[in-house]
Amino acid sequence: MLNRRQFLLGTSGVLALASLPLVPNGQSQQWLVSAFTKSSAARGLQHFAGAFNQEGQLINAVLLPARGHGSAAHPSKPGHAIMFARRPGTFLLEVDFTSGVITKHIRAAQGHHFFGHGVFSQDGRLLFSIENNFEQGRGEVVVRDSNNYQIIERFDCGGVGPHECRLMPDSNTLVIANGGIKTHPNWPRKKLNLDTMSPALTYLDLTSGQVIDEFKLGNHQLSIRHLDVSAQGKVVAGLQYQGPKNDNVPLAISHHGQASLSFLKADDVVWQSLNQYTASVCVDNEQQQVAISCPRGDLITLWDLNNDQFIRQIKMRDVAGLGLANQKIIATNGKGQVLDVHDSQRQFTHFNDIRWDNHLTTINT
Amino acid sequence: MKKLNMIGTSIALALTLAACGGGGSSSTPTPTPTPTPTPTPTGTIDDQYASYLKDLTKNHILPGYEDFQSESAKFVLATSAFCLLSNTTEADLNLVKASWLETNLSWQNIQWVKVGPVVDKFVTFRIQNWPDTNNAVERGIAELLETSEEVTIELIANKQTGAQGIPAAEMLLYPEDPNDSILTSSSKAKRCETLTAISANIAKMANDVYNEWSPNGGNYVKSVNEGTGEFTGQKDAVEELVTNWLEQVERVKDEKILKPVGDAAPGLPNITEHALSDKSLSSIKVNINTFEAIYNAGQGHGFDNILTDFLDQQATATSMADKINAAQSAISALEGSYKDALNDETKRAALEDTIDKIRDIRDTLTGEFVQILDLSIGFNSNDGD
Q1: What is the nearest CA distance from B46 to chain A, expressed in angstroms?
Q2: Would you say residue B15 has pLDDT above 90?
Q3: Pick from A272, A277, A316: which is nearest to B125 by CB?
Q4: Which of A239, B3, B239, B320 is most buried as measured by Cβ atoms within 10 A of its Cβ?
Q5: CB of B158 within 8 A of CB of B195?
Q6: Rounded to 10 degrees, what is the CA torsion of B328, B244, B132, A313?
Q7: Are A358 and B161 within 8 A, CB to CB?
């Protein structure tokens, strides 16, 4: 494990202090958690999970067995989060970022791997991890006891290649982005069913474990990947297109109880500029906006949560991570940069030699 | 009177833009200034990257944007002059077409650059909306020709991107239906008004982008050269430009050649970059020539120098240079109509050969080249999750 002092030696903390004042005085501290990769001549590429604070300083980081992906804030353990392995990884770690210690290390069951995402139940007693049952070729929501992360139940998530999930405001429904892409760890990053893939936005009842609703798009190669849910229960999801490279397709949808999914509204040029790929989705209930990151387009896009209209774009190269900390949307990228999305001066905080991975999670301390 | 006003405005704009540019015009998109190679720096790899950036921007990018600015200003003058004529001939129209082609080729020379002002406000798509799978250009032109409003540069600039750039001008100059010829069409006046406004809009975008790059304007070149602003350092700036280069290599190979070649003759000429004018081959040649300029920093302190003189990797330097030369040679076997080439077995073989040679460049670029230079080309953008 690297301690805080060792890490700060490799960061530009002074600049960070000046450029990322995220917390108004008097508010409780929130940290942002992300997987990241760091390279050094001596050790080559190493993968970590780290938390940084409102001053843009790395609090603590732990070395991961392999590349991480998404994380989940532990609702009843301040300063703790779960880090999920990147597909097709098999580790799930509970990390105490206050001390920089891995407090639990869980492996996926035989025939399973993690898909990089999961959420806790509202009371914090259960963890719902999204997993690939690759022996049976189906996606599962695996219900785990958050004391020891032992498996309590397995629910079929109603599709192939599930990715991100979120708890709906009723606390009893899980909305799942079923990406539709079949994979197998024998061919770790290969997509095996692009011609027949069938993505869906799926609602799963957590009491019965049954799929209660499912919505598909007309274009079956629009993979539903990442999503967020507003306080009122509106779901916004980012898509990744698996069809021909020169197709210009919309890359974000919303759903709020309607009979079908709706694409967010933007000119063709906006969709074209995203290069068929989105990464993270982040709802800001206060501002009634949604941010969607687009690393292949080097853009953060902002959308009106009420009418689904495109508002504007912010340029940030290789941007992927988005998180909401103290009413501000924060973005990270593969260049080690951190940005307050609404900062009109676009002042980046920069962590030397760090490549922030796909997703950011806010945790309370 | 309206026509004269519009044309007068466009000519004034073109003359202003030409004056702003301060540079001469050339009939080829290759930058004209004689490169002055920077002395081989000693010290660290970061010093090497600094020299590369300085020479690439000085020898290739800035002159490239200046050339685009100059050619697009001349295109405004050409369209305006044509539209002032009461009796127009095929020869008159050919002058406008030639100017459009020079504007396009000057754009093709710096089409690969995806950093800086060209990215802001989707300018790159406004200059050239291609591939256009949603028929945005056709829809945009139809809307402009139908409007009762005077088509001005302001109107164009607020239209959807398909109506704004080089493909929109191409559609008016090379209509699919002969009845829509700007020489003989019953809507000739409206077509002239629209073409003039589109050309003025292209020239304005070219002027704005150049001025933002220029040390005398927005000085974006300083950010690139020093690795500041959006960049985390000079190596980061180099990585971004190499990523741009790789994307252009893939685009030229796949979108411009592989897909139009298709499985068999006659190929798919309708999806080529310039399907209406049939000038796609000229653009591809310019694109491949830019690979050389990116590699050797416009004959300055290029990657060839870094690999050879600093990293002692002569073999990789020679390999990359040879592969670029091979791609240039392969495409040079073809001249004239791309449509004819796609339908001719011998020429199709030359196109297949060009694809293979560009693939070789791609393989070297993504393999030993970035490994030896320790360059990272995308992290989250390559993630796939």
Answers
A1: 15
A2: no
A3: A272
A4: A239
A5: no
A6: -170
A7: no
Are B125 and A269 inside 8 Å of each other by CB? yes
Cβ atoms of B355 and B224 closer than 8 Å: no
Count how many Cα atoms sit within 13 Å of the Cα of residue A113 in the half-sphere of its side chain: 21
Task: Kindly identify which residue of chain B lies nearest to residue A271, measuring between CA atoms.
Answer: B122
Element (H, E) at B254: none
B246 φ/ψ angles, rounded to the nearest 5 degrees? -60, -40
CA dist., res. A6 & res. A10, Å (int): 7
> B235, B255, B385: which to substitute to probe chain A, counting the most A Cβ within 10 Å?
B385
Query: What mean pLDDT is predicted for residues B320-325?
Result: 98
Give the list of residues 6+ apart from residue A45 with CB closer than 8 angstroms, or none. Answer: A37, A38, A39
User: Which residue type does A217 have?
Assistant: L
Q: Which candidate, B236, B383, B130, B127, places its Cα nearest to that of A293?
A: B383
Residues of A in contact with B120 (CB under 8 A): 315
The set of residues, in sequence order, having a beta carbon less than 8 Å from that of B235 and lying 6+ positions away, is B45, B46, B49, B227, B375
**Distance set, CA A246 to CA A192, A194, A275, B6, B284 (Å):** 21, 16, 9, 36, 17
**Statement: residue B289 has pLDDT above 80:** yes
Give contacts of A37 with chain B, Cβ < 8 Å. Answer: 379
Q: What is the mean pLDDT of residues A50-60?
A: 90
List the structure tokens of B132: 């256009």
| Per-residue tokens: A121 | 């139940």
A317 touches B240 (CB < 8 A): yes
The C-alpha atoms of residue B331 and residue B329 are separated, in whole angstroms, by: 6
Chain B residues near residue A317 by CB distance under 8 angstroms? 230, 240
Is the link from the previous residue into A88 a cis peptide, with omega within 30 of 0? yes
Question: Would you call A247 an interface residue with chain B, using a CB distance cutoff of 8 Å?
Answer: yes
Minimal C-alpha gap between B228 and chain A (Å): 11
pLDDT tens string B169-226: 999 999 999 999 999 999 999 999 999 999 999 999 999 999 999 999 999 999 999 9
B201 contacts: CB under 8 Å, gap ≥ 6: B153, B156, B157, B164, B165
Confirm or reject contact between B160 and chain A (CB < 8 A): yes
| CA distance linking residue A61 with residue A35, whole number of Å | 9
The Cα B207–Cα B21 span in angstroms is 8
| CB contact (8 A) between residue A246 and residue B384 | no
> How is the beta sheet containing A235-241 ordered, strand by strand?
A222-229, A235-241, A252-255, A262-263
Question: pLDDT for B120-171, tens place per residue?
Answer: 889 999 999 999 988 999 999 999 999 999 999 999 999 888 999 999 999 9
Q: Which residue has the tokens 């069913």?
A: A193
Q: What is the DSSP letter of A265?
A: B
Give the phi and the psi of residue A2 in degrees, each rounded to 5.
Answer: -95, 135
CB-CB under 8 Å, B232 with A315? no
This prediction's pTM: 0.87
Strand, helix or coil at A110? coil
C-alpha distances in Å from residue B241, one per residue of A180, A283, B227, B231, B294: 34, 33, 12, 11, 9
Which residue in B136, B259, B380 is closest to A333 by CB distance? B380
Q: Are B320 and B230 in contact (CB under 8 A)?
A: no
